[in-house]
UniProtKB/TrEMBL annotation:
Official protein name in the record: Fumarate reductase iron-sulfur subunit
Alphabetical UniProt keywords: 2Fe-2S, 4Fe-4S, Iron, Iron-sulfur, Metal-binding, Oxidoreductase
SUPFAM superfamilies: 2Fe-2S ferredoxin-like (SSF54292), alpha-helical ferredoxin (SSF46548)
InterPro entries linked: 2Fe-2S_ferredoxin-like_sf, 2Fe-2S_ferredoxin-type, 2Fe2S_fd_BS, 4Fe4S_Fe-S-bd, Beta-grasp_dom_sf, Helical_ferredxn, SDH/FRD_Iron-Sulfur, Succ_DH/fum_Rdtase_Fe-S
Length: 247
């Protein structure tokens, strides 16, 4: 069954913009990205939109749909009533380049600041991992870097001033993954707290709610990382050890 849907799409650039109304055909089984592509093909050839896989795997098509951070390619049109207006705006936490495309370089800068996996002197093939350690890493490695979690976190969503000191859930999760990896020799607790702003996170769990890969970011990464940091700071023996440089 085809029908005409009312779309309201943000059009503009870094300077100014507005929500513009369109009426676009929708066919059975389509997702929001299909409709945006039809809009581009029929009425708005200059509409800027970033996408790649159309399968929920590249993380490119992040947007806010009726105010909810989502992947456009994974949001079925059947989610909405046929007479409902579907509003599509760029993700809010990162600066707009044009229309639905934002500059997410903040995320790549934060990624570069995380020291790489450090297996010490262990040679490839010398280390055997427990299955539970493998599974923990695998959950975090499902991340497609859509940055919806960083987009939704209140610490930086409306607080540009926090960005230098907070890397967001995606990168705190990366630090947690490495910190809990049995073959990684680096102690990442201090950089998590001091350089990447773990203390800003007050466990609101909005990041977990929007993750399209259903990674339990808060419960499985951020809270365990916080527990490790607290252990280092408040355990007197650990504190003394760190002062003496032996922990
Ligand atoms: Fe996207 Fe989830 Fe990765 Fe965050 S953790 S960037 S929401 S896939
Ligand atoms: Fe932000 Fe997630 Fe913590 S939304 S406050 S990083 S639990
Ligand atoms: Fe790749 Fe949507 S186009 S995740």
């Amino acid at each position: 069954m085809s029908y005409k849907a009312k779309f309201r799409v943000w059009r503009g650039d870094a300077g100014e913009g507005e929500l513009r109304d369109y009426t676009v055909e929708v066919n059975e089984g389509e997702v929001v990205l299909d409709v945006i592509h039809r809009l581009q093909a029929t009425q708005a050839p200059d509409l800027a939109v970033r996408w790649n896989c159309k399968a929920g795997k590249c993380g490119s098509c992040s947007a806010e749909i009726n105010g909810m951070p989502r992947l456009m390619c994974m949001t079925r049109m059947s989610t909405f009533a046929p007479d409902e207006t579907v509003t599509v705006t760029p993700i809010r936490t990162f600066p707009v380049i044009r229309d639905l495309v934002t500059d997410v370089s903040f995320n790549y800068e934060k990624a570069r600041q995380i020291p790489a996996f450090d297996p010490g002197d262990v040679k490839p093939g010398e280390f055997r991992m427990q299955q539970e350690d493998v599974e923990r890493s695998q959950e975090f490695r499902k991340c497609i870097e859509c940055f919806l979690c960083n987009n939704v976190c209140h610490v930086i969503r409306d607080h540009e001033e926090n960005k230098p000191n907070f890397s967001g859930p995606r990168f705190l999760m990366r630090i947690a993954e490495l910190e809990m990896h049995p073959a990684d020799t680096a102690d990442r607790r201090k950089i998590a707290q001091d350089d990447h702003g773990l203390g800003f996170c007050n466990i609101t769990k909005c990041c977990t709610e929007v993750c399209p890969e259903h990674i339990k970011i808060t419960d499985n990464a951020l809270i365990p990382l916080k527990e490790r940091v607290v252990g280092r700071r408040y355990d007197p023996l650990v504190w003394l050890g760190s002062k003496l440089g032996i922990v």
